[in-house]
Amino acid sequence: MIAGLILAAGESSRMGADKALLTYRGRTFLGTIFNVLRDAGIERVAVVLGHHAEQIQRAVNLPRAEFILNPNYLRGQASSLQAGLRALATPECAAIVLCLVDHPQVSSETVQRLITAFQHSSAPVVIPTHQNRRGHPVLIARSLFAELDRLGAGTGANTVIRKYHDVTEFVEVSDAGILVDVDDPETYRGMAAGES
Questions:
Q1: Which of 104, 84, 91, 82 is CA-nearest to residue 33?
Q2: How far is CA 164 from CA 144, 147, 156, 167, 177, in A?
Q3: How many Å apart are CA 181 and CA 179, to the nearest integer?
Q4: Does the domain made of 2-195 have the CATH classification 3.10.20.70?
């Protein structure tokens, strides 16, 4: 089984509003990404919340999502990744598709491409690229879970992922959404203008 993991615990300080609840095509960012994962055939999806966790959980309708509270979210993204991995690291979980809540434009076809690539290669990491630029989400095999779980505060997952560059599978996709990181109001306004 391949599970989905959405990290949505941060303070969204640069945005000035909870990114999980911003809207894209009539849905919240969080709801959009959840549906992309489900449309790609992923049945088990966990969402890590921290800042404003109760308000976010009340505001979204994600059937059968597993909500995980990360009380240590101020320690950085690695702490949320670790909370999610601990919840998902069951014997049947072969890998996770790791999604960041500020990347709402990724298509379900891209997620399916990552899953297919992993099923054929069993690579420890599968990363989408668009015009030779790496993006998100990233598929991470179970073999790296323990190493990621040992990351210290303030250390990003890339510290581990970079170690496996030589055996990482890069999947070129036509989906420019893998590169769109909505991290500030200007980017969000530009994305919203592109919808109209």
A1: 104
A2: 10, 12, 14, 6, 24
A3: 6
A4: no
* Helices of type H across 90-136: 108-121
- Tokens 């449309």: give the residue: 39
The residues spanned by each domain of the chain are: 2-195
- Output the pLDDT for position 195: 66
Q: Which helix (DSSP H) or strand (DSSP E) does residue 77 occupy?
A: helix 77-88
Give the number of other CB atoms < 10 A from CB of residue 88.
Answer: 21
Residue position matching structure tokens 């980017």: 187
Q: Are 148 and 140 in contact (CB under 8 A)?
A: yes
Q: Do residues 24 and 104 make contact, with C-beta atoms less than 8 angstroms apart? A: yes
Give me the residues of the chain with pLDDT under 70, please. 193-196
Outline where DSSP puts E strands in 80-163: 95-100, 125-130, 133-134, 138-141
Q: What is the pLDDT of residue 17?
A: 82
Cα separations in angstroms, 58 against 54, 55, 75, 129, 188: 6, 5, 24, 35, 23
The pLDDT of residue 14 is 80
Strand partners, 46: 5, 66
